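Need tokens for this chain, all 321 residues.
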Amino acid sequence: MLLWRLTKMENEYRSKTLTKLIKLKAWVLAARLRTLPLSVSGILVGTGLANALGYYNALIFALAIFTTIAFQVTSNFANDYGDGVRGTDDEKRIGPKRALQSGILSKRELKIGIWISIAISLLLSILLIYTAFGTNWVYFAIFFLLGLLSIWAAIKYTMGNSPYGYRGLGDLFVFVFFGLLSVCGSFFLHTKFITLLTLLPAIAIGLLCVGVLNLNNLRDVETDSIHNKNTMVVKMGFVWGKQYHMFLMVSAFVAFLVYAYLARTGFITFFYLLPFVVIFVHLNKVRQVKRPEKLDPELKKLALSTFFVALSFYISINYFS
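Here are the structure tokens for all 321 residues:
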């Protein structure tokens, strides 16, 4: 009898441990770790531009990285919830399974996770803004408002009665928040001013990030269309969506070239544009693809290539010039 009870207790312990591990895996899945390098690309570029002018603060840089990651995780949780409750992430969906779709996390659990992530995002935002501006309440108020807008944008992409991601506005919001705000905002946190030249790398990174979203939408065009998620690709069609993708990537490259000419970066231009070799190989693959599901492996390639463009830019303008 004692042996039976011990065996039962051991089995129950193993079952609870396994359940906890499955839950943890589901949260990691919902956080979508492979998107996080992309989210910090704008911070790397903005900080690199500030450092090249002699402005450097390691704490601001670290807090900016953690804050943007918190925003991205909040967005990913909200996206998992929003698409899940609408049925967009059904069994026909291509790509990684979603936490709510799989049934491992309930709606209540995911909602709690979203609120916790929002709280962490707000806390990090306040710490970042105070570290950068201290008691300059004008700058504090402006950047706190921008932080609130970032959280709103993260949530409203797929959640709420009229999510903008279902109305083809995702590309615009990604361009603004991942490109313009991320690069110019992180630059301003260090320098307390902005330059017109900063806009060119900001535009380039924004276009690359939109490209990642567009590639995701190209992959999911069939299921998105069925569930009335009217992305830009759904509106223009798969073939024109691929042309739009080409335009985004080439325009990003041109924006960096114009920056190189105006900033007179000289030979170091070669180093931070080197990752575009992978991006142009990727474009050839996209051009040849006939079926949306074949694009799934390209997502990781483009996201990592964008990150390496940003990292190469940071290193080049600070250590090679």
